[in-house]
Design brief:
The structure is a single chain. The protein is mainly alpha-helical. The protein has one domain. Helix content is 83%, strand content 0%. It has ten helices and no strands. The chain is globular.
Length: 203
C-alpha cells in the first residue's frame, strides 16, 4: 500500500505542476473545465494518504484526523467534478446565451465559496491531528510544520463567515479569498506529506 500511495502521491504533484505551467495557455483557450477535471484527478490520487499516514504513525489520536482528511479529499473530488460538469456545459451548450452570466456565476459560487472554504477547514483539522501525532512520535519538525498548516483554519473560517453573513463584519471584509494562497498552501501541505512517506518508504 505504501508503494502505491507514493506513486499516486507523486502523480498528483505532477498534475498540479502541469496545471501550474500550462495555466495561461489553458485559460486562453477557455479550458477551465479541463483544469477542474485535472484537479479532481489530482485530489483522487491523494485519497489513500489519510489511511496510510494513520497506519504509519500508529496513533489513536490520528484516527479522528484521518476521518477529517478523508472527508476533505472526497468532498474536494466531488466538488471539482461538479464544477467540471458545470463549466463544460456552459462552454459547449450556451452559445445562445440562454443561461446568463449571472446565472452561471451563481451556480459556480454555489460550488465554490463557501463550499471550498468549509472543506478546507477539514484539511486544517487533519493537519492539527497530524501535528499532534508527529509530536507524540517525537518528530518535532513535522509536528511544527503541520501545526503551521493547521493555523490556516482561522483564515478559512473567516472566509466562510464572511460569505455566509448578511451583515458583514468589517474585519472579515479585509480578508478576501486568495486562490494563489490557497493553492500554494494546499500544494505545500501535500508535498510535505508525500516527501515524508517517500522518505519512510526509501528507508
Amino acid at each position: 500500500m505504501l508503494f502505491s500511495t507514493v506513486i499516486f502521491g507523486w502523480i498528483g504533484i505532477l498534475i498540479f505542476l502541469l496545471i501550474l505551467f500550462n495555466f495561461k495557455k489553458m485559460a486562453k483557450n477557455n479550458e477551465y473545465a479541463l483544469m477542474h477535471l485535472m484537479q479532481a484527478i489530482m485530489y483522487a490520487m491523494w485519497l489513500p494518504l489519510p489511511l496510510v499516514l494513520y497506519q504509519l504513525l500508529d496513533s489513536d489520536i490520528l484516527f479522528v484526523g484521518s476521518v477529517f482528511g478523508s472527508v476533505y479529499l472526497i468532498l474536494l473530488v466531488a466538488g471539482m467534478a461538479l464544477q467540471t460538469g458545470h463549466l463544460a456545459f456552459i462552454s459547449k451548450h450556451n452559445e445562445d446565451k440562454k443561461i446568463s452570466d449571472s446565472q452561471a456565476n451563481y451556480m459556480m459560487a454555489t460550488l465554490s465559496h463557501p463550499y471550498e472554504g468549509f472543506v478546507n477547514v477539514f484539511k486544517c483539522l487533519w493537519a492539527i491531528f497530524l501535528g499532534l501525532s508527529f509530536w507524540q512520535k517525537g518528530e518535532g519538525i513535522m509536528a511544527m510544520i503541520m501545526f503551521l498548516f493547521g493555523l490556516f483554519i482561522i483564515y478559512y473560517l473567516i472566509i466562510i463567515l464572511d460569505a455566509s453573513l448578511v451583515k458583514r463584519v468589517t474585519l472579515f471584509k479585509k480578508i478576501k479569498p486568495n486562490t494563489v494562497l490557497v493553492n500554494l498552501e494546499t500544494f505545500l501541505f501535500f508535498l510535505t506529506l508525500i516527501i515524508y512517506i517517500t522518505f519512510i518508504f526509501g528507508s
